Amino acid sequence: MTLEAGSLNRRVKLQRLVETQDDDTGAISKTWQEVATVWANVRYLNGVETLKADTTISAAKVSIRIRFRADVVAKWRVVYALTNFNILAVLPDAQGREYVDLACDTGANEG
Predict the structure, then answer these.
(1) 17 pairs with which residues across the strands?
(2) CATH superfamily, with its number, for domain 7-105
(3) pLDDT tens string 1-50
(4) Per-residue pLDDT tens over the stretch 55-69
């Protein structure tokens, strides 16, 4: 399967969680650091609403295809259209090394 450039029609940000320790207090703080902005194909697979802690939360499952990168890991997140998507699995095109599919969802976690 050949990856067509026209199918990558959305800009997304790849971010990783970085922990830093304050030299004075020793407190650990977590921040998201941008790794790259890349072209992607974003496909919404499904969405649900759930009840969590007496609050309705919407969640969506999304597949995001980007050009092949060997550095993306499931601890990262994707930011698209003001939404943070948690990367659940990184599914590379191991044979052709043309693309990587990122299985993602929205929901409550560090993203």
Answers:
(1) 32
(2) Bacteriophage SPP1 head-tail adaptor protein (2.40.10.270)
(3) 567 768 899 999 999 999 988 888 888 999 999 999 999 999 988 755 55
(4) 656 678 999 999 999
Compute CA distances 93 → 22, 41, 84, 105, whole Å. 40, 15, 24, 20
Domain ranges of the chain: 7-105
Q: For the chain, give the longest Cα–Cα distance.
A: 54
- Residue 97 makes CB contacts below 8 A (sequence gap 6+) with 68
pTM: 0.82
Q: Do the beta carbons of residue 41 and residue 65 sit within 8 Å?
A: yes
At 70, the amino acid letter reads: A
